Amino acid sequence: MLVAHITDTHITTPGNLFYGVVDTAVCLTRAVAALNCLDPLPDLTVITGDLVDGGTPDEYAHLRSLLRPLRMPVFVIPGNHDAREPMRQAFVSDGYLPRQDFLNYVIEDHALRIVALDTLVPGKVGGALCEKRLHWFDSTLAAAPDKPTLVLMHHPPFVTGSTKWTNTALMAVLPVLRHPQIERILCGHLHRAIESRFAGAIVGTAPSTAHQLVLDLRPGASLSFAMEPPCYQLHHWCKGASLVTHTAAIGDWLPYSFSKPASKPTPTE
Q1: Which of 31, 107, 114, 185 supports an S-S bond with 203, CB 3.0-4.6 Å?
Q2: Domain assignment present for 262
Q3: Residue 101 belongs to what domain range?
Q4: Which long-range contacts (CB under 8 A, 24 or more apart) does 162-169 make?
Q5: What is the domain-level CATH number for residue 241?
Q6: Is residue 147 part of a domain?
Q7: In this predicted structure, what is the pLDDT of residue 175?
Q8: Global pTM?
Q9: Residue 266, in any domain of the structure
Q10: Tens-place pLDDT, residues 238-251
Q11: CA 170, CA 167: separation in Å to the nearest integer?
């Protein structure tokens, strides 16, 4: 099974730029094209939150139009920039989002079971998990203890080394992660590729398809973003082996063969 993972697309309404700088729609278009060109084609794509920037219906309509060319199914979870009800209305016809309450769900149709967890707290940058969501998560994992599982959540629960990036409220998920079938927890939010082991599980964040957060681990450092290369991740699962993650930059990168020297351009007179 091959899972494509993109995150933090931050789509605005058509014609508007993120912070007046980033054309997130063009960035997502390039990401979709890159995923469509992969061979083998991923079985599905997951998007781990901050789908749009302001949580409005018009932004979600724009997002849906940009995702439409994808040649594989797509599954989404909310981030702190999303809004539950407009997001639900935009994606409910796809059949996997619940019609009420939190946007938690399970996908059972593949070699890896996918459990998606809604960490959104409206009006807050950080995420949290209430008792209701923790109970749902625990009971959902307990229902299939022998099925290798991929967990999706926007906010990563681990300590990152930066106070600006660490979400201590999500440490509440710690007791639930005792379930040994969790292969990986895929997150977004941090606009960088960051990995950690947390309660025995491997947790990782993916870079954004657009802008990245500047890596600055100084205490009290302010957040800023930079136009580092946009990326996607591929999570490759083979039965009897572990899940392997690849991070790839999006763009036209010229390949050179190791089998023969690259030809040098002929100088012009």
Answers
A1: 185
A2: no
A3: 2-249
A4: 162/216, 162/217, 162/221, 163/219, 163/220, 164/221, 164/222, 164/223, 165/190, 165/213, 167/126, 167/127, 169/126, 169/127, 169/128, 169/129
A5: 3.60.21.10
A6: yes
A7: 85
A8: 0.93
A9: no
A10: 887 789 999 999 99
A11: 6
